[in-house]
């Protein structure tokens, strides 16, 4: 009986000691966890707006980090105006804007498109780079072709220069279009002018009086004008000239990353220029010389679109393929006198 009583007492006390040890262990564990918790937690995954809207991860400028490498949105750059639909005072025909309380940082998660990621994706993509510095109204770019001019007729298949006067655009600034397309915000220089470059594109038109929209995929000449303007004028040579026909020549003024130039207001004159000219049609085709247009010439069909030109080849060429670039100048696959084919422009790195 004594043995049984002692055993009973021992068994009764053991759970109490075990419980105390367990509680003590929990306390020690908590202390250890607390010590481990002194280190900053890993940054939240960038999978949703709720995870990255503050400086809680000690990644932002407020915590002494570099805001340009941080994966969190610094509250100082949140644009509260983005939360407005624009329909606070409804206007007939006006649609509501998309809204965001976090600068649309995860917008591309809402669409079924690949990220642009610096590439020219023909099937479309979603770009994540901010628009950047918007040029003031006093710094809006402007351009005007000086050759050819409207209504001018030039000789067929003969080299000629395209020249364009430009202002408020710091030309000669271009990035690699194959890897950095739309991949950075627009920048301006100390004077507020956009850092960028221009492009010349020539498309055949049915006539001077044609009203049909053109296919942007089809052009007879395209050149990224990568050099800086000389005395305010850009120049590129159409080395092989153009076949007889009617043409529209336009500029595409962009920032360094090939984004069309962005300015401070919606109401402004065109930031680009276009001219209409003929090739091998004579002065009778000119509708700008007091109305003496030659009707027969003025309605002639455009030249066979199978012939295109690119600077630097000296012969009629097919639209240049991608991945053939030296010094960011186009090279074309040579095409000799094969008319009747509709030329569809291929993706070129000469952007």
Automatic annotation (TrEMBL):
Q: Which residues form the signal peptide?
A: 1-19
From start to end residue, where is composition biased (Low complexity)? 27-38, 45-60, 299-336
Q: Where is this region: Disordered?
A: 27-73, 299-351
Annotated keywords? Signal
Q: Which InterPro entries match?
A: Appressorial_penetr-assoc
Q: Which residues form a coiled coil?
A: none
The transmembrane segments are: none
Recorded hits in PANTHER family, A to Z, give: G-PROTEIN COUPLED RECEPTORS FAMILY 1 PROFILE DOMAIN-CONTAINING PROTEIN, VWFA DOMAIN-CONTAINING PROTEIN
**Can you say what this protein is called?**
Uncharacterized protein
């Amino acid at each position: 009986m004594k043995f049984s009583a002692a055993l009973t007492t021992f068994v009764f006390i053991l759970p109490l000691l075990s419980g105390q040890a367990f509680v003590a262990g929990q306390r020690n564990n908590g202390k250890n966890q607390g010590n481990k918790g002194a280190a900053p937690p890993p940054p939240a995954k960038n999978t949703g707006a709720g995870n990255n809207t503050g400086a809680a991860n000690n990644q932002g400028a407020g915590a002494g980090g570099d805001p340009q490498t941080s994966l969190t949105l610094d509250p100082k750059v949140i644009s509260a105006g983005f939360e407005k639909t624009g329909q606070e005072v409804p206007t007939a025909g006006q649609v509501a804007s998309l809204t965001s309380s976090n600068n649309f940082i995860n917008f591309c998660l809402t669409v079924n498109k690949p990220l642009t990621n610096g590439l020219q994706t023909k099937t479309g993509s979603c770009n994540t780079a901010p628009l950047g510095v918007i040029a003031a109204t006093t710094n809006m770019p402007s351009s005007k072709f000086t050759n050819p001019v409207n209504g001018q007729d030039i000789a067929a298949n003969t080299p000629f220069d395209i020249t364009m006067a430009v202002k408020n655009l710091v030309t000669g600034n271009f990035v690699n279009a194959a890897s950095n397309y739309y991949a950075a915000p627009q920048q301006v220089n100390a004077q507020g002018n956009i850092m960028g470059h221009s492009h010349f594109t020539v498309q055949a038109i049915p006539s001077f009086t044609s009203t049909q929209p053109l296919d942007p995929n089809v052009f007879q000449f395209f050149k990224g004008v990568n050099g800086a303007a000389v005395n305010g004028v850009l120049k590129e040579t159409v080395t092989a000239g153009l076949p007889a026909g009617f043409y529209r020549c336009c500029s595409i003024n962009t920032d360094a990353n090939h984004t069309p130039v962005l300015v401070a207001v919606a109401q402004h004159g065109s930031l680009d220029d276009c001219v209409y000219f003929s090739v091998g049609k004579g002065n009778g085709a000119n509708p700008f010389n007091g109305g003496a247009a030659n009707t027969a010439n003025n309605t002639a069909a455009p030249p066979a679109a199978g012939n295109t030109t690119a600077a630097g080849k000296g012969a009629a060429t097919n639209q240049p393929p991608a991945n053939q670039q030296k010094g960011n100048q186009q090279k074309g696959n040579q095409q000799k006198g094969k008319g009747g084919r509709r030329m569809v422009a291929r993706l070129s790195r000469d952007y």
